[in-house]
Amino acid sequence: MMKSTTTSTLFSERLKHYDKREKWSKMGKIVPFLFTSFALITVLFSFFLLFSPIPFKVTSKQGLTSVQNLHELQGNFPKTDHFEEVENCDLFTGHWIPELKGSVYTNSSCTTIPDSKNCFKHGRQDVDFVNWRWKPENCELPMFDSMAFMEMVRGKKMAFIGDSVARNHIESLLCLLSQEEIPLEIYKDTEDRFKKWYFPNHDFTLMILWTKFLIVGEERMVNGTGTSAFDLQLDKVENSWADFLPELDYAIISDGHWFFRVMYLHQGNSLTGCVYCNEPNITKHDISFAVRMAFRTAFDHINACKNCNGLVTLVRTFAPAHFENGFWNTGGYCNRTSPLSKEELDLGVFEWEMRNIQVEEMERAREIGKKQGKKFGVVDVTRAMLMRPDGHPGSHWGNKWMKGYNDCVHWCMPGPVDHWSHFLMAVMRKELGIFS
Ligand SMILES: *[C@@H]1O[C@H](CO)[C@@H](O)[C@H](O)[C@H]1NC(C)=O
Ligand SMILES: *[C@@H]1O[C@H](CO)[C@@H](O)[C@H](O)[C@H]1NC(C)=O
Ligand SMILES: *[C@@H]1O[C@H](CO)[C@@H](O)[C@H](O)[C@H]1NC(C)=O
Ligand SMILES: *[C@@H]1O[C@H](CO)[C@@H](O)[C@H](O)[C@H]1NC(C)=O
């Protein structure tokens, strides 16, 4: 499913080059890695994030056949009877409990599941990973209700802004929403990085705006070949997404996977630092710094936006990858079949730090935004997803060219990724003051 032979050739060349590098045991140990080990990470994320296939066609009406069953199912999901309880409850601290009703959609009721996330189609045998429900410690998380969601967003425009994991979220949301209405695909660019759908019955517009870093980031090229090192302009948002802000009601921002690489950091016209570089005269920063600055610049831009009245910005926090016993090209895999328990959860990992930075920057922006009429919130999926090493495609992502390699970055559909929309809807309801 590679986009072209050029990219695959390029990739296999890099692969040969980096294959002999030292082996690593775990994603979570990225931070202290030395510069010399670094290129490997870069290749990993370049690969998964750039070339993750995205065949997408919202045309079929087959999905409608199961709508009735669906509403029956949804009726059985726990509803919130206790308004105050949800209002004051921390939805994001909890654990996974068995939910025998399984998923709201299947790979036949949702016709738009991208091939690379259709894990059952590609031979995934264990099915239990769809049979879990998130249970916040002190309340119930209301499950996604496509009909109610559509009413909430009637006449609105919502964009998902971020990398291919943001795309994974919108793909999941489309499966949930297509149970209510099949959208028209009204725009797509040649690389499927910018797409727009319209739901005529609800006058709802949904779009994906693709960005690696939120801020301007250009890959350093040598003789026409990418070096995997990037120049980041810390004080400039990428206009390809930011230009859409004035027309949006909801911006769902997420990002992070592209930052694990050599980066040269610029402010104004000066080079002010770098990440994972070994030039003697440049101030060294860690990934956290670059991530923080990227989010801060994006949020400052939103707060300064004159024509963005009433915009609600929600940060979907970092979603961890789960490679075990190696990296993607050193035999790393993610073939677990059940969630982690609370006791097994490790918040000492770098992914949690990424999440904390994103939440801190959101809170900073929220304070500033109060004066500008801008609203900010968080869809804080990190803790729940840290506990779902069983939610990734692993070897079941149908990529013939990359046989033997595992995708432990993206998420199977159906699967725990569908919970991001449960969380999203709950947060939006809180935002609107609706608690039922
Ligand atoms: C759905 O998954 C089943 C395996 O559970 C597979 O046989 C079938 O081909 C898949 N259908 C589609 C439309 O992907
Ligand atoms: C780039 O191309 C020039 C001319 O072909 C060559 O001299 C140089 O070594 C190349 N640089 C790298 C880094 O490959
Ligand atoms: C580093 O700084 C020193 C002293 O200012 C200078 O002589 C040297 O050329 C610089 N090196 C680089 C790589 O810029
Ligand atoms: C997961 O994969 C590894 C490596 O292929 C294998 O050794 C292990 O038995 C697998 N575990 C399960 C639960 O399938």
TrEMBL record:
Q: What is its main location?
A: membrane
Entry keywords, A to Z = Membrane, Signal-anchor, Transmembrane, Transmembrane helix
InterPro entries given for it?
Answer: TBL (IPR029962), TBL_C (IPR026057), TBL_N (IPR025846)
Q: Name one Pfam family in it.
A: PC-Esterase
**Membrane topology summary:** Single-pass membrane protein
Coiled-coil stretches noted in the UniProt entry, renumbered to this chain: none
As one GO molecular function, the record gives: O-acetyltransferase activity
Q: Where are the bilayer-spanning segments?
A: 30-51
Which ranges carry the Trichome birefringence-like N-terminal domain?
87-140
Q: Which residues form the Trichome birefringence-like C-terminal domain?
A: 141-426
The record's subcellular locations are: Membrane
Q: What are the GO cellular component annotations?
A: Golgi apparatus; membrane
Origin: domain of life:
Eukaryota
Q: Cross-referenced PANTHER family, in alphabetical order?
A: PROTEIN TRICHOME BIREFRINGENCE-LIKE 9-RELATED, XYLOGLUCAN O-ACETYLTRANSFERASE 2
Q: Which family does it belong to?
A: Belongs to the PC-esterase family. TBL subfamily.
Stated name of the protein = Trichome birefringence-like N-terminal domain-containing protein
Native organism is: Cannabis sativa (Hemp)
